[in-house]
Amino acid sequence: MTIKAPTLNIGGLGADPLTQRINEKQEKWTYKIAVLSGKGGVGKSTVAVNIAAALAKKGYFVGILDADIHGPNVAKMLGVDRAEVLAEKMEDGRFEMIPPMNDFLGQTTPIKVMSMGFLVPDDQPIIWRGALVTKAIKQLLGDVKWGSLDFMIVDFPPGTGDEILTVTQTLKLDAAVIVTTPQEVALLDTGKAVNMMKKMEVPYVAVVENMSYLICPHCGNEIDIFGKGGGKKLAEKEGVDFLGEIPIDLKAREASDAGIPIVLYEDTVAAKAFMKIVDKLVEKLEAMKGEKEAPDESKEE
Ligand SMILES: Nc1ncnc2c1ncn2[C@@H]1O[C@H](COP(=O)(O)OP(=O)(O)OP(=O)(O)O)[C@@H](O)[C@H]1O
Question: Is 45 annotated for ligand binding?
């Protein structure tokens, strides 16, 4: 006797409705960029927020998703941490969240921000295992009214965990920006993150070195607190691009605590460094897109 096999419901392989919604939404995002680090505390969120703000300052429409579920700081760094998240009822009866926005008094195009930090009280830790974290991140992608975007920036959790694999697969990333400090221990973990993104065939993988040096507020000399040149060497060794160095800037820390990305303080060394990094990134992505869209002349005859 034969019976009909039960239907398997394997989440995350492309068939579930949430993944389908993410796929529909990401059709409207020109570039999807993940910002990640092998190690915590290297300034990953600072880099993600400043890349987003630099792009918005250039006039692009930008969304940023804080997928760092365990330490969601992006909303605070963009000054929208006290925003109330409203939801809209969709035709199929579901609700979609409307991302809060900030345009820094007209200095940027409005940046759409979504974070788990909006949905849990400030002092409550999120104690979830991998599968739940993945589901939460996917909901913040698929159940939010993101609309059309030039750039979707995703601030990933630190490390090289399971949830990073799943979200990278779901998102079909265009680029991964991996943040490190010049310090040996950070570089070791950064190498792992670079290799993870290469293995997952993310088309463009690049390294940014943060906290590269401190400009002494007294004598103006550069002090290499965490060593020198490690990020560049690592990028060369792994055969990926090096986008640039960002100094430790006391203003950067103050600005991020006040909810204003340092990149909006145009005269600072950190702002100039961020703008250069973003220029390089945009140039590279547009060149890659151009190559992809150009007709393959070798096939013409
Ligand atoms: N270039 C910089 N100059 C001065 N302060 C910085 C710089 N980069 C980051 N910081 C500060 O260092 C702290 C940690 O930065 P951030 O939260 O961006 O790190 P992270 O890697 O995202 O951390 P986590 O792993 O906890 O998510 C923050 O207080 C931030 O303001």
Answer: yes
The answer to whether residue 7 is domain-embedded is no
Asked if residue 251 has its Cβ within 6 Å of ligand 1, the reply is: no
Looking at the domain assignment, is residue 237 inside a domain?
Answer: yes
For atom 25 of ligand 1, which residue has the closest CA? 40
Ligand 1 atom with minimal separation from the 253 CA: 31
How far is residue 107 from each of residues 50, 53, 57, 229, 250, measured CA to CA in Å? 13, 9, 6, 33, 22
How many C-beta neighbours within 10 Å does residue 124 have?
7
Containing structural domain, residue 73:
27-84+94-120+127-291
Is residue 43 included in any domain, yes or no? yes
Q: Domain total for the chain?
A: 1
- Ligand 1 pocket member 253 (CB < 6 A): yes
Phi/psi at 64 (5° precision): -130, 130
Query: Among the residues of 124-268, which ranges form H helices?
Result: 130-142, 162-171, 184-199, 230-238, 250-257
Tell me whether residue 216 is in a domain. yes
pLDDT in tens, 179-194: 999 887 778 889 999 9
3-state SS assignment for residue 109:
coil
Alpha carbons 113 and 176: distance in angstroms, whole number: 19
Mean pLDDT for the stretch of residues 31-35: 97
